[in-house]
Amino acid sequence: MDRLEKGKNLLNQVDAAAADTVMTSLKDIAPDISQYILEFAFGDIYARPGLTLQQRELVTITALLVKGDTSNQLTVHLNGCLNVGLTPKEIIETCIHCIPYIGFPRVLNAITVAQQVFTSRHITV
Amino acid sequence: MDRLEKGKNLLNQVDAAAADTVMTSLKDIAPDISQYILEFAFGDIYARPGLTLQQRELVTITALLVKGDTSNQLTVHLNGCLNVGLTPKEIIETCIHCIPYIGFPRVLNAITVAQQVFTSRHITV
Amino acid sequence: MDRLEKGKNLLNQVDAAAADTVMTSLKDIAPDISQYILEFAFGDIYARPGLTLQQRELVTITALLVKGDTSNQLTVHLNGCLNVGLTPKEIIETCIHCIPYIGFPRVLNAITVAQQVFTSRHITV
Amino acid sequence: MDRLEKGKNLLNQVDAAAADTVMTSLKDIAPDISQYILEFAFGDIYARPGLTLQQRELVTITALLVKGDTSNQLTVHLNGCLNVGLTPKEIIETCIHCIPYIGFPRVLNAITVAQQVFTSRHITV
Amino acid sequence: MDRLEKGKNLLNQVDAAAADTVMTSLKDIAPDISQYILEFAFGDIYARPGLTLQQRELVTITALLVKGDTSNQLTVHLNGCLNVGLTPKEIIETCIHCIPYIGFPRVLNAITVAQQVFTSRHITV
Amino acid sequence: MDRLEKGKNLLNQVDAAAADTVMTSLKDIAPDISQYILEFAFGDIYARPGLTLQQRELVTITALLVKGDTSNQLTVHLNGCLNVGLTPKEIIETCIHCIPYIGFPRVLNAITVAQQVFTSRHITV
């Protein structure tokens, strides 16, 4: 299986619906970015052994939460967390754990996105 | 057990040596910060159920790596990762996983700190 | 008075209306964050002597402005600034003072939020 | 020609329409910021020899893209890029070039703004 | 008094020694940056009415602390704080106040710089 | 020519000496990161048409300067700028151009690194 196939495969496990939306939106303006996301981010990196998909998604939402100005990407990967089997409780707990390292504002922003994702999936915490 | 005791307990599990160093350095200039680290960061947050200590340390090094200008804190928590049972391989893999979200520079900085921590503990990857 | 009471007391002085909104929005998804905001951010930190509430709010809006991606939190604390007696002129002046340290974009973003807050309170500068 | 005149002149070359909007929005709340943008950012800095206007706009969109939480300013300067003669292809290529240094999320955010700017100018890439 | 004179005047009040060091280091490689620091940062911005020099330095160290990777500039302005009459206690308190907004790591970094500045001035807190 | 070969080729044009140092330092701890830098950052991205190598290095140092905590990477790419034919004057001018977008501190940090790079190459500006 080549990098592109491996990447598509993994992105579909993480968030198939979001993948479609992002790829469609990039199709006309910058299709090469889609290709790099699939080949590099998912085909090279997510495909590596050494961490479970659940660990990878935990690390991903932490990275996005801390970076800030990433609500679109958080939406994708909060769904991704749930899709690979993390519980809503583990997601919220990860956000809370970041408070001492990054402060309340970034965490509150992430919680707002989590709330929208949970609502869209009819999840109550 | 009160918040302070709970916090001391947990910080000792994560990195007892570093705890001593940080607390000593703060003793004269800002001892209240030590207290907040123990009571709030460790006594309130680390003490929560919902994530294992290994998950918490994985999230912590991700947060520090992404934030940047945190090499002192990364030294503490890369040691913390090893102390709570994460493998050097999982640590390196976590750094690599962040490349697509944050780019190479922050990851290379974290790898440099990891190298120093591993060397100080006679670990070869 | 315990930490929670002290915190509620202080948050009410800073921005009672915003407090309600934030706490309500966190009630179902992450009520513990509300508790930490009250107990730690306000009960421990704001309650300390050593700086006036006006100085604290000046420092707070600077921190939020510089951090970026904090428009919700800036709305709360620009109102907070006015509630503890800072003048609109001092607020604008604080934003302007940050230009050499952080550049124009973050300052322009903060001014946009300030404009909305001032309008909602029928303030003309 | 004084700094203010030089600045107005240059901002008009970069993005006359946006200049009007920004200046109007600042007129009542913080007119001095408009003056500093004109005198310092454009009259002092853009007016310097040593880089072409095209190089300056390339550097500007990179700075804004990397900083994050700058979609308003990116809108101004993506238009500015086109106004000083950079091609849509060069703009997209600049965004793509930043992926290894800053990761995908900031680049995807910038591409979203570029898409809006290109659409508003009936540009197809 | 022109902008340059006004700026020199104000920078001397804030930190005359540091001013010399910075200006000397820029003299051969980028003397124009010295000029902009004097004319714009100090001659235009610090010279404005509306905030006291003490308020300006409080805002400045907050901005630098939050931004990160600014230990050189923090050294200048922690000295500046003391030179314009802020007490060591107010400086430490400002750092502590930022914990809920930015987390512990940036605050600990600033405290380390404060410790060096206080030691160099034989100040004990 | 495959991605790895293309990447090695390009990195050698940008900064052969630095490449060696980085790759050697990663060899034992995380050799896969070297591979990704060569294959993805240089083999995929730098190898693209659409921008000249000079434009790419201009964009790179801007990205690094704005991000902060990147002095090691700035050392590599300030050398890279010179290696692909940018002049010291263009480098300094790029730093100066960023002042209005990011403020003085990040620019002063970059100038400090530039000074070291220029000195090591016996360049006087």
Largest interface: A-B, 32 and 32 residues
Portion of residues within helices of chain A: over 70%
Strand content of chain A: under 5%
Distance between the termini of chain A: 39 Å
> How many β-strands of chain A, per DSSP?
0
**Poorly predicted ranges of chain A:** none
Give the averaged pLDDT of chain A, no decimals. Answer: 96
CATH topology heading of the largest domain in chain A:
AhpD-like
How many separate domains make up the residues of chain A? 2
Oligomer: homohexamer
CATH superfamily of the largest domain in chain A: AhpD-like
The biggest beta sheet of chain A is recorded as: none
What is the C-level CATH assignment of the largest domain in chain A? Mainly Alpha
Q: Nearest-angstrom radius of gyration of chain A?
A: 15 Å
The class by helix and strand makeup of chain A works out as: mainly alpha
Note the total helix count of chain A: 6
Overall 3D geometry of chain A? globular
Please name the CATH architecture of the largest domain in chain A: Up-down Bundle
